[in-house]
């Protein structure tokens, strides 16, 4: 039993080293300027080890974004802050997710291609989307627990509405690029419409 836990820990640590090495290289050279060989060298492991953990550079990029978004999901757990309207809380949640991706727009392209371009998603991506849904569901539950709030739609519909809104905004954010002025305006408007349309 202890051997299995140790091997799993080593696997997680190795994946973490690979993703951290890729992050440093992507920051310095851009995703297109980095090879899997370079990532292996930066992580101080052999390329076969990288290949045993990831199917390619795009998979590493997706793992990097998932890790960044996990931190955003932790921050979303602190919403809504005192005095925030429903629309402001939804806007804040959307921007926590967008801001977590801002250092790596090239990785976002790989993420969106994988999300919409395959019939069967990788388990890691499926697990991430489930964690995202859980986080957003919990946010809606906290919002609905406020005095005077009423449940206009089932939680699953609220989560799907937010996720659909967020994917559209993510695409706009990626196309527009920094400083994301149009994406910020659209996020505020969409969050307001979602809050109003859901009778929250």
From TrEMBL:
InterPro entries: Homeodomain-like_sf, HTH-type_TetR-like_transc_reg, HTH_TetR, Tet_transcr_reg_TetR-rel_C_sf. Keywords: DNA-binding, Transcription, Transcription regulation. It comes from the Bacteria. Residues 35-54 bind DNA. Residues 12-72 form the HTH tetR-type domain. PANTHER family: HTH-TYPE TRANSCRIPTIONAL REGULATOR BETI, HTH-TYPE TRANSCRIPTIONAL REGULATOR RUTR. This is TetR/AcrR family transcriptional regulator. It comes from Sphingomonas rustica.
């Amino acid at each position: 039993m202890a051997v299995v836990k140790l091997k799993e820990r080593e696997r997680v640590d190795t994946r973490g080293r690979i993703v951290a090495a890729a992050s440093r290289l992507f920051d310095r050279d851009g995703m297109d300027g980095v090879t899997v060989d370079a990532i292996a060298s930066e992580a101080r492991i052999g390329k076969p080890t990288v290949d045993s953990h990831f199917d390619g550079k795009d998979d590493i990029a997706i793992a990097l974004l998932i890790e960044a978004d996990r931190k955003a999901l932790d921050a979303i757990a602190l919403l809504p802050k005192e005095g925030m309207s429903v629309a402001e809380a939804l806007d804040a949640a959307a921007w926590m997710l967008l801001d977590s991706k801002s250092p790596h727009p090239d990785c976002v392209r790989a993420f969106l291609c994988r999300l919409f371009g395959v019939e069967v998603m990788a388990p890691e991506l499926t697990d991430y989307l489930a964690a995202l849904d859980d986080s957003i569901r919990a946010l809606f539950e906290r919002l609905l627990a406020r005095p005077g709030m009423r449940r206009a739609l089932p939680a699953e519909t609220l989560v799907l509405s937010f996720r659909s809104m967020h994917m559209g905004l993510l695409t706009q954010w990626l196309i527009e690029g920094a400083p994301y002025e149009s994406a910020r305006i659209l996020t505020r408007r969409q969050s307001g419409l979602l809050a109003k349309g859901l009778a929250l």
